[in-house]
Design a protein that fits this description.
The structure is a single chain. Strands 3-4-2-5-1-6-7 form a seven-stranded mixed beta sheet, sandwiched between helices. It is an alpha/beta fold. It has one domain: Rossmann fold, CATH 3.40.50.300. It has eleven helices and seven strands. The protein is 39% helix and 13% strand.
Length: 280
């Protein structure tokens, strides 16, 4: 039986004569502690396992992605070093993983950048970074961001093709989602092509009425296509994976988590890619 190509692979196959452009997706939230980094790491791993050449970039000054996947991340040059000095070759920033199609860029050693600051100040250099990533032949660039839509984070999201909003399934957090979506709509003034893919519920506890109620409440206040059908459960396997510096998909007990992130990947493909694998 002939193997069916994913939309990402089809795009490369159908456009061999033209230069492929990386698709960039930011993962953004209004508040911290919503499972943003967990989603970023495991979604990147799901795409890489599907044969999509994926680069995961840590744009959070706290360095959560790097600390989760490599204990030496504080010693690595990374994203903010490039923002400070775009002359740094991208190859010096890319950290390979055990999976050939999965690489990462740590946040870096530069300490001058804070989550706040003026919007638009770093747009040119962030866009230059994404052009450099595209030039290295990556299909997908996932960018894990700091919480809130200001400073460097707003510029990262504005420079991206699309954005995913993870949100913990608990009553207080749900109330912040409409505010974040309003903020994303304002960023679309600077990038009209910014595709708000929707909200992904995280840390869902099906056995807890309050968690189920929060999820139902979010689905009640947002249009149906703005909330992913796939939900990320609260599960100790994510903590174990982070402690070992691994995506949950490579854990012996991670089979169910693999299915969750494969499902999320397929939903994103349907939202993001046209019938011939072209960006909408």
């Amino acid at each position: 039986m002939k193997k069916r190509l994913s939309p990402w692979q089809a795009e490369v196959t159908l456009n061999q004569e033209s230069a492929a452009r990386v698709t960039s997706i930011s993962v953004s939230s209004q508040k911290g502690g919503v499972g943003k980094t967990t989603l970023s790491i495991n979604l990147a791993h799901a795409y890489a396992r599907a044969g999509v050449r994926t680069l995961l970039v840590d744009t959070d000054p706290q360095g959560s992605v790097g600390l989760s996947l490599t204990r030496q991340s504080r010693l690595l040059n990374g994203f903010y070093d490039y923002i400070e000095d775009p002359a740094i070759p991208l190859d010096r920033l890319i950290v390979p993983t055990r999976l050939e199609t999965f690489s990462l860029v740590a946040c870096g050693q530069t300490t001058e950048y804070e989550p706040g600051g003026g919007m638009g100040a770093h747009l040119a250099r962030i866009r230059g970074f994404l052009r450099a990533v595209s030039g290295r032949g990556y299909d997908l660039c996932l960018l894990d961001t700091a919480a809130g839509l200001f400073g460097v984070t707003s510029d990262v999201v504005t420079s991206s093709d699309a954005v995913i909003v993870p949100q913990q399934a608990e009553p207080l957090g749900i109330r912040s989602v409409p505010k974040l979506l309003d903020g994303l709509n304002r960023l679309r003034v600077m990038n009209p092509r910014l595709n708000v893919l929707g909200v992904c519920l995280t840390m869902v506890q099906e056995d807890l009425e309050e968690s189920r109620g929060a999820a139902d409440s979010l689905r009640g206040i947002l249009p149906g296509d703005m909330v992913f059908h796939t939900q990320v459960p609260r599960d100790g396997v994510f903590v174990k994976a982070s402690a070992r510096g691994l995506p949950v998909g490579v854990m012996e007990e991670g089979a169910e988590a693999i299915e969750v992130f494969d499902s999320l990947r397929e939903e994103i493909d349907r939202k993001l890619l046209g019938d011939e694998g072209e960006f909408r």
